[in-house]
């Protein structure tokens, strides 16, 4: 059939198609479940707020805490603005380097979210790919991949992340630029959380590959990668979305833990975990705000993402409908 015979949407029909998709989304059971849960709505708003603060940090921050030219040691350890010793424009005070704590939190939030999102994408791609291969082909391939996954499950994720981080630092001579350190953290987190994706996708593939649509695709000669990616993978998206949402919080916590232990982002490009580690050194000296506000920001971010993950798990569970 030639291209001339194929119907093409006119410019007037495109907005109608978008409007129809939006109406279907608003009328779906998933959105109805989301609307009914006030706690989930609040969690979604808080999560969105954190993302917006991270995106627009350069516009909202009084200073760029990553730029040494904007820092002055004379402004170090200033208490929050509402206290007796507070000074404008340092709403949440400053740290030992004269960095505005609010600006450091906004920029640190960008680092934490970037590491968390990239770590989830990497671990998801690795786990989904291995899960599809193991479930679809079975046999020795399935056995090898699943035994590797079983062995990794015996080690805590933070231990694997520390191991990957230590190997990378030993290879580089303990001299890593902040961008290289970012890549190492993403690699460490990705290698720590791929097992959940692989096991979940493998279980779904074992069910889906015996259905008629897969047999029909095989009958017409579609190659295995096309069948796995185009036909089998879309039927496993529900559980994968739940795992990805929960793992985003776990990835951020893992990065914060590594940074708190001194194996994460450097002090010149601090994440929330690095800010908490820096502030912890001055907690007993009375400068509580240096550690308290980054800690509250991290706790609020993790809590809101976890609440969204819990709701999504329940909303996509057919047994609870």
TrEMBL record:
PANTHER family, sorted: ABC TRANSPORTER PERMEASE PROTEIN, OLIGOPEPTIDE TRANSPORT SYSTEM PERMEASE PROTEIN APPC
Localization terms from the record: Cell membrane
Keywords tagged on the record: Cell membrane, Membrane, Transmembrane, Transmembrane helix, Transport
CDD domains listed in its UniProt record: TM_PBP2
Membrane topology: Multi-pass membrane protein
Keyword Chloroplast (UniProt): no
Any one of the GO CC terms: plasma membrane
Residue stretches spanning the membrane: 39-60, 113-138, 144-164, 176-195, 215-233, 240-261, 288-312
Domain ABC transmembrane type-1 per the UniProt entry, residue ranges: 109-309
Name by which UniProt lists this protein: Peptide ABC transporter permease
Pfam families: BPD_transp_1, OppC_N
PROSITE patterns documented for this protein: ABC_TM1
């Amino acid at each position: 059939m030639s291209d001339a015979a194929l119907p093409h949407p006119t410019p007037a029909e495109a907005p109608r198609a978008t409007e129809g998709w939006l109406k279907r989304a608003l009328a779906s059971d998933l959105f109805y479940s989301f609307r009914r849960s006030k706690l989930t709505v609040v969690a979604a708003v808080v999560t969105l707020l954190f993302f917006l603060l991270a995106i627009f940090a350069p516009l909202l921050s009084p200073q760029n805490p990553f730029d040494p030219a904007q820092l002055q040691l004379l402004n170090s350890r200033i208490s929050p603005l509402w206290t007796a010793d507070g000074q404008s424009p340092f709403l949440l005070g400053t740290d030992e380097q004269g960095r505005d704590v609010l600006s450091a939190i906004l920029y640190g939030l960008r680092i934490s979210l970037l590491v968390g999102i990239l770590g989830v994408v990497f671990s998801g791609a690795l786990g989904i790919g291995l899960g599809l291969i193991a479930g679809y082909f079975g046999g020795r391939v399935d056995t090898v991949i699943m035994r590797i996954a079983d062995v990794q499950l015996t080690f805590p994720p933070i231990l694997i992340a520390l191991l990957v981080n230590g190997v990378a630092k030993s290879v580089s001579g303990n001299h890593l630029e902040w961008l290289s350190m970012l890549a190492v953290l993403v690699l460490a987190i990705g290698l720590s959380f791929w097992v959940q994706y692989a096991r979940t996708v493998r279980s779904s593939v074992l069910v889906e590959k015996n259905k008629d649509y897969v047999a029909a695709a095989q009958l017409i000669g579609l190659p295995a990668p096309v069948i796995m990616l185009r036909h089998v993978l879309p039927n496993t998206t529900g559980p994968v979305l739940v795992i990805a949402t929960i793992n985003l919080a776990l990835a951020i916590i893992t990065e914060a833990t590594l940074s708190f232990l001194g194996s994460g982002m450097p002090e010149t490009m601090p994440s929330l975990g690095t800010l908490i580690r820096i502030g912890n050194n001055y907690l007993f000296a009375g400068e509580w705000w240096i550690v308290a506000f980054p800690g509250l920001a991290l706790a609020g971010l993790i809590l809101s993402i976890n609440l969204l993950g819990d709701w999504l798990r329940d909303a996509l569970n057919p047994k609870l409908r």
